[in-house]
Design goal:
The chain is of the alpha+beta class. The chain has helices at 34-45, 98-107, 159-167, 225-237, 294-304, 354-363, and strands spanning 28-33, 59-65, 68-74, 78-84, 87-90, 92-97, 112-118, 121-126, 131-138, 153-157, 184-189, 193-199, 203-210, 221-224, 242-247, 252-259, 262-269, 288-293, 314-320, 323-330, 333-343, 348-353, 368-373, 380-384, 393-399. Helix 1 (34-45) runs antiparallel to helix 2, helix 3 (159-167) runs antiparallel to helix 4 and helix 5 (294-304) packs antiparallel against helix 6 (354-363).
């Protein structure tokens, strides 16, 4: 169905799943559990714009029909929709202020709510007649239209596996606008594995899950970080696999999963590439190996970084035969922390951004980690020591060093 010429289009989804009516409804009535409505609005709220000049983008769309109540929020780049089971007496549609509506519903007592739409007001009665709240509504017909996705690639990943893939990589994506293709993660597929990669030019994270995922293709697609943040929350809660649909021709992707009785869909625009050839920056000749206890290193870096420069966050690694110390000295103060380590290479002094390093270390689930190094100014690889808890998964991280004040080359 074609939208009115003055209606904005949000990211796509699968056929017949989101708003398709051409006008708002004058009435609506349904009964729903307070916890169910609060969950749905809370999920949709994650995609609602906080700064848009368009009033409708600060709303969630409520759509009631025979399938239940669908709650949708969007900022035109990322859309979240939740289908909630409920008893619908009169189908209808309404757009209400997302944050105000969500705050009030969240505070209501548990139990059955009665939601009605009449006279341009959405009313909720709760507590078996104990109380009611009313909310002004906006014209649902003006809410951004959600077109069909018409995917050309589909794959399915267990929710817990997808949440790990995202959690181990998304943090390394860039937040700078100068290279927008780095403001997300590259998703690649193949006959033997699926890969998620992100980098900001200072660090890189590459997470792999083995399996047949050829539908995505080696060229892959770039998923925005903001969409991944919404997806990981749903993936963690999913009680089914997460279905991923990609319409690369439309620069759109959709994620859908069952969360208990709820069906959650997250739709996003893809970032335009090309994504840099990250394989070229992963060193192949780093032969100096440093092995440390991950939690010990996190503790040391975290303490010493308290003295680091607020801009560079630089800490110094001093490597000696089976010895490692981390230090920092600025006008804020100074500190030094020794960490038990295994190291047999040449003595070396390396500078690292403590924030970047901690992000990497926190993403690795193993007890020990290994650094594969070359020189003080060359990229270093950080990997789990031994296999990951999930045998079919792999993880590789890269970090660029900082030039220490006395480093000459």
């Amino acid at each position: 169905m074609n939208a009115p010429t003055d209606t904005t289009t949000a990211p796509g989804t699968t056929s017949g799943t989101l708003s398709s009516q051409s006008s708002g409804s004058a009435s609506m009535q349904l009964s729903i559990e307070q916890g169910d409505l609060a969950f749905a609005v809370g999920k949709a709220l994650g995609s609602v714009s906080t700064k848009s000049p368009l009033p409708l983008l600060s709303c969630v769309l409520l759509e009631a029909d025979k399938t239940g109540l669908r709650v949708t929020g969007t900022d035109l780049d990322v859309t979240t929709s939740v289908l909630v089971p409920c008893t619908v007496t009169t189908p209808g549609r309404a757009a209400v202020s997302a944050r105000h509506f969500g705050d009030v519903v969240r505070k209501m007592p548990k139990g059955t709510l009665t939601l009605t739409l009449a006279n341009q007001q959405c009313e909720i009665r709760y507590g078996a007649g104990k109380g009611w709240s009313r909310f002004p509504v906006q014209d649902a017909a003006e809410f951004p239209r959600i077109p069909d996705l018409k995917a050309d690639a589909k794959l399915s990943i267990p929710g817990d596996a997808l949440s790990r893939l995202i959690g181990r990589t998304a943090y390394a994506a860039s937040t700078e606008e100068t290279r927008p293709q780095l403001n997300g993660a590259l998703l690649q597929g193949g006959d033997k594995q699926v890969v998620l990669v992100s980098t900001d030019g200072h660090r890189l994270a590459k997470s792999i899950r083995k399996g047949a995922f050829a539908a995505v293709g080696k060229d892959g697609v770039i998923l925005p970080t903001r969409a991944l943040q919404a997806v990981i929350r749903t993936a963690e809660e999913a009680t089914s696999a997460v279905d991923i649909e990609i319409a690369s021709g439309k620069n759109q992707a959709g994620f859908s999963a069952q969360v208990g009785e709820f069906r959650v869909q997250i739709l996003t625009r893809l970032l335009e590439g090309p994504y840099p050839n990250y394989e070229q920056v992963i060193p192949r000749n780093n032969t100096k190996k440093l092995t440390v206890k991950r939690l010990d290193l996190i503790e040391a870096v975290d303490i010493v970084a308290s003295h680091a420069d607020n801009m560079t966050r630089q800490v110094r690694f001093s490597l000696r035969q089976n010895a490692l110390s981390i230090s920092s000295a600025t006008e804020l103060g100074a500190g030094d922390h020794a960490v038990e380590a295994q190291y047999a290479g040449d003595d070396m002094e390396i500078g690292y951004n403590a924030t970047y390093l901690l992000d990497i270390l926190k993403s690795i689930p193993t007890e020990d980690v290994s650094f594969l190094l070359n020189t003080a100014l060359a990229a270093g690889i950080i990997e789990p020591m031994g296999a990951l808890p999930q045998a079919e998964e792999e993880l590789l991280c890269l970090i660029m060093p900082l030039r220490l004040p006395e480093a000459a080359g």
